[in-house]
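quick one, two chains, predict together pls
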Amino acid sequence: MTETVVTRFAPSPTGFLHIGGARTALFNWLFARSLGGKMLLRIEDTDRARSTQGAIDAILDGLKWLGLDWDGEPTFQFARADRHREAVDQMLADGRAYRCYAGAEELEQMRALAQAEGRPPRYDGRWRDRPAADAPAGVSPAIRLKAPTEGETVIDDLVQGRVVIPNKDLDDLVLLRSDGTPTYMLAVVVDDHDMGVTHVIRGVDHLTNAARQTQIYQALGWAVPKMAHIPLIHGPDGAKLSKRHGALGVEAYREMGFLPAALRNYLARLGWSHGDDEIFSTEQAVEWFDIGSVGRSAARFDQLKLQNLNGHYMRATPDDELLAAFKASLPYLPGGEEAKNKLDATGRWDAFAIALPGLKERAKTLVELLDGARFLLDERPLAVEPAAEGLLTADARALLGELSGRLAALDPWTADGAEEIVRSVAEDAGVKLGAVAQPLRAALTGRKTSPGIFDVLVALGREESLGRIADQAAPPRAA
RNA sequence: GCUCCCAUCGUCUAGCGGUCUAGGACGUCGCCCUCUCACGGCGAAAACAGGGGUUCGAGUCCCCUUGGGAGCGCCA
């Protein structure tokens, strides 16, 4: 009798889907998929002031791009406020919650005093046992949980192990604000229960919340779901990941030219391991995933390793697939729109496809791939980069002139044929191959580096190649 | 301040009492390959935070110290 596993990813739509959230979503997804369960999506939009439709769209878009699909329609937390209040009514009726008339200033003073006396800044429960008759007129109360004051609350965490929090350190949290709106703490419990969530997987920053929420579950007489609090991702300096570290939304990673599969692999490997396996498919990850193998210490985000992994993925991706991925990503890459227009206008997509095998070998991201393909985008006469200028000496230009004539006779226009000619020109001139190949590279691409030069010749085609060489070659007889 | 969590190469990690003179990956540095840059191949430097226990035996278990981190709202 195995119950079906139900996990959920519950972002609050106050910003984009950041990388930490993406990993939380991934772990929920991996866990659910590995056990044949479901992953639900819940938008925690109870903070009306900060929640935006734009953020909701960005989060859904980010999840889709990452390939993390969820089951059913997303649940919107704000829409369930009535149900949340219903749960509070139950707790009130059962004597597990009470009305608190303490005002904002009063609470602030309470906290300040506690701090000053070296005590934790907690609510002192002053309205906990006061009779209703004491209620001040005209003040609408907040509803607080009548939390246990003695004993301890235990969280049997799948990642953190058995975590024990003394109840005296937990105060009577607010369930319903004085304006009648439910708090996050309440909403999460009621929603997870109603949605049938069996496993709550989220960041460790929620560990203390887990204890408070456990108390709410207990007050409601509901079973507590299994919990797994995964460590946070830190920046290179070991501190919490922030914008300064490049902790951007997942869409930023799309703009940087990363492949979703590579990012998935990287994120899964960050904090979770399956022996020494570094590169594995999503299918393997699903097969291998084991929440118990998730480490307990925070991991630093290493963009260099992500890049290396992405490079592996690009090289391993079949050319036609990579081409499709590249085309799909182009609108998001810097200068991608412009590049697309040029490729469309010049009809050089064919050349791009021909050059792709050589290009992908040299790129760690789609952005680098695009950069490497720039010689396909440029028009004659080519602007030669300063660094490559030095390659085009007078001798080199003369060699190009010689090469130009011989190449013109090449038919068919193949890499092998071109190589034979270039080698013979070098040999006849008594120089090394590089002495001809490098100037040729400068003439053809305007740069010092590029894919293999014979492949470049083929990708560019006879006419364009000959034209570019002529642009840089010394005039046949003149000077 | 209080509560909780964490601690193996620079980074991500393997290690679940003896197989550890600690393995892999990224990064770094050499060498090879080579038309450039990459890729690839080979190799090198690089870690069990410190101190006490427990045990025949500790990177692995316990405690303390130190160092990190998270949480302590009528935010989520």
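The mean pLDDT of chain A is 92.
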